Amino acid sequence: MLTPKTTLSGQLDGAWWPRSRDLAAELPVLVAALAEPWGRITRVTVNPTRWPVIPHKVLAAGHTLHVGWFTEQDPDKLILLSYTVGRWDLLVVPPQTAPAAAARLMAAAAVPGSVLTARALIAAEAVIGRRPDLRNREDAWESEGGARVSDIGSLARLPVGPLSAGAWW
């Protein structure tokens, strides 16, 4: 999910839910999907904490994508850079995240003008995911005719936009 261009800027510009922790496999899909709306993405930065192997260069969308890593960068954030459009900071939803939790994280990362960091969103989701009373409230709502996110959670893995191997919102 991406934050609309016409809104206030916040800490994050959206979220990305990769299928794995393999940057060499995941980045080309993301970059190809974003090439049309954002232009040519030339650089990506990550924190090495969450990525076991960080290639220096990756072939993506017909060009070389330079990958940098910085320990100072939020471990749960990926930064994309483009000469034509600028910079985007995306929350990286961990690949093993349950669909309902991923949907909540992606929606929260796309809130216009939000001051919450990637790390704060991941920490908040960890707390929410462990609270059975919140799940019980969803069950009560379901009995009143609503639908739990977990019931439609399989939709969260469907790509929004042109992606076929990962999800970005």
What report would you give on this structure?
- The chain has 169 residues and is α/β, with parallel strands linked by helices.
- Helix content is 33%, strand content 21%.
- The chain has a seven-stranded mixed beta sheet with strand order 3-4-2-5-6-1-7.
- The protein starts with 13 loop residues before the first strand and ends with a strand.
- The relative contact order is 0.22.
List the helices and strands and how they pair.
Layout: E1 14-17, H1 23-38, E2 41-46, E3 57-60, E4 63-69, E5 77-82, E6 86-92, H2 99-109, H3 118-129, H4 132-143, H5 149-152, E7 167-168
Parallel strand pairs: 1-6, 2-4
Antiparallel strand pairs: 1-7, 2-5, 3-4, 5-6
Helix pairs in contact: 2-3
In short:
With 169 residues, this protein is α/β, with parallel strands linked by helices. The chain has helices at 23-38, 99-109, 118-129, 132-143, 149-152, and strands at residues 14-17, 41-46, 57-60, 63-69, 77-82, 86-92, 167-168.
